[in-house]
Amino acid sequence: MNGKFPHDFLWGGAVAANQVEGAYLTDGKGLSTSDLQPQGIFGAITPRHEGDSGIKDLAIDFYHRYPQDIALFAEMGFKCLRTSIAWARIFPQGDEETPNEAGLAFYDRLFDEMAKYGIQPLITLSHYEMPYGLTQKYGGWGSRATIGFFERYARTVFERYKHKVKHWLTFNEINMSLHAPFTGVGLPADSDKSAIYQAIHHQLVASARAVKACHELVPGGKIGNMLLGGILYPLSCKPEDLLETQRQNRDWLFFGDVQARGAYPAYMQRFFRENGIQVAITEEDRQALRETIDFISFSYYMSGCVTADPEQYETARGNILDMVPNPHLASSEWGWQIDPIGLRYLLNVLYDRYQKPLFIVENGLGAKDRVEADGSINDDYRINYLNDHLVQVAEAIDDGVEVMGYTSWGPIDLVSASKAEMSKRYGFIYVDRDDAGNGSLERRRKKSFYWYRDVIHSNGNSLKQKG
Fold first, then answer.
1. Is it the case that residue 319 has pLDDT exceeding 60?
2. Is 362 a catalytic residue?
């Protein structure tokens, strides 16, 4: 294990504005699509009325408590913190000519606090939310007009924070729009494939325009995409299973192909043709897409299997995807299969495909933690999970893969995206709040807090190789 991680490796953690900030209408913020999903990204779209409340409205109150939380991250030795800007804090309805100064000022304070401790921000422009006004007035990403609104937003924050933020991401898990259209592109869940892919196309063009704007406005800035790394294996060596696995992996690799290579891959033309999917792509769009990302970022939680005969098997539900379980792997409390070697495999697949630097920006274990009588939280299961995955990251680096950094998902307990639960905890830091919204919001260090501190301090040399 010794010396495999680069000296400038960006160790840290990752959160999202809508899962930690709270303050959901504070300081001029508008409603976001996330605010309309109080039960999480798979919950019903629920209109908001005066007096309504949801667990994300307060979340863990990071909006007011960020100095305390940043200090805890610094105590662990974070080099990097990934978070997102809530688009509706900057443009409350999405289509305003001028931004909301109070929203901009909040992120100034946040980035300044991080700078005090030498923590580099990694900022996602749109993480599972957009201003709800854009879905009401324009049909979300179904409208070409949204490209311009997003570009205005991106240029606004690049210009404002160009000396404070050097690493940016465009859309969180951009490929998930195929599975949760309202969360991803602001379309109804029952939208047809042509409508969804047209909205995705608009988002890909907007992403490319943001890349161009970042290169123009942020001195020394780097901007990447963000994929849900849903790597799939064939369930057997039957040629039909291999071919179906290739097809399903291309469902999500397509997004990386466009963003990293600057054009639609040929296999998508066949897919559109054979499925009767119509996507309007202009010559101006094709020119815009040529502006490619600087690095690939992705989430990784689990792998899955593919068979050409899926009706014979039960599926396992991940955060977004349904997969055929791998009989050789164990599962978490939530049924997510645990596959550390899959992370090494995925890193090699992506590096072989794109030859661009990679950044693991989400990886973690959701579990029900127990506070002991003495106040301690002994989350050895989380330590084991993260240790085994990071050992495989080191192996991938030894394979020759260029890995920029690792930000574990949820370094502090937060509201889960899928079902808006607090009980599904990821953090090194425990937050006293339950699924009903009860609790003091007190922060408490878990056993994993000290473990991760040692990993960062030793630059990975404290990790334990198994077997």
1. no
2. yes
